[in-house]
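Morning run. Coffee first, then this:
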Amino acid sequence: MARKKMRPRLIAELARRVRALREQRERPRDSQRYSLDYETLTRPHSGRRLPARASADVHRESRLLQLLGRLPFFGLGRLVTRKSWLWQHDEPCYWRLTRVRPDYTAQNLDHGKAWGILTFKGKTESEAREIAQVMYHDWRLVPKHEEEAFTSFTPVSEDTLHSVPYPPLLRAMILAERQKNGVTSTEEPMLNLERTRIDPWDYPAKQEAKRKAKGTPV
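And here it is:
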């Protein structure tokens, strides 16, 4: 006799979905999590305080959604960059916006999430992803008439020279060490010049991983 298939526990599944929906509704919105008291530089929801050096940027610069809220369609297709990138890198670093989801409970629609395609130090990623640190006060909008000049970038051709001879003193020390260890190799010691690629500390993916390890960003 064929065994009947067990039906899923519909009530338990419905209860799980109700709990998930309730948790989602009770979850604080971005306008609550990242609201800021500009006098004390403290976020009321978390109680965390911004560093003192952030005071100038907080009062002069804008969050990402503050910039996008002034634009038609929240600036879809526009380029945005960060002041810290402009100061630290000569190569173009920017996001091209592909999607914006504002927090409609915010008073001026100045909170929310955004997605885009990242170009960092002249290298463009293939897929769009969520933009991290949209709550930071250092975002800049690239004017339309400057986009072409801002994105133009000619990669520096890497030198094809991968190794060079050691200086005479180091070469003599290496040969003496070989002789001491009984190495009979007659190969000329060469200094390797190939660079190991390491992403900069402010690469968005690195900062996102660091943020997840530490917890909610300030």
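The CA atoms of residues 110 and 176 lie 68 Å apart. Good start to the day.
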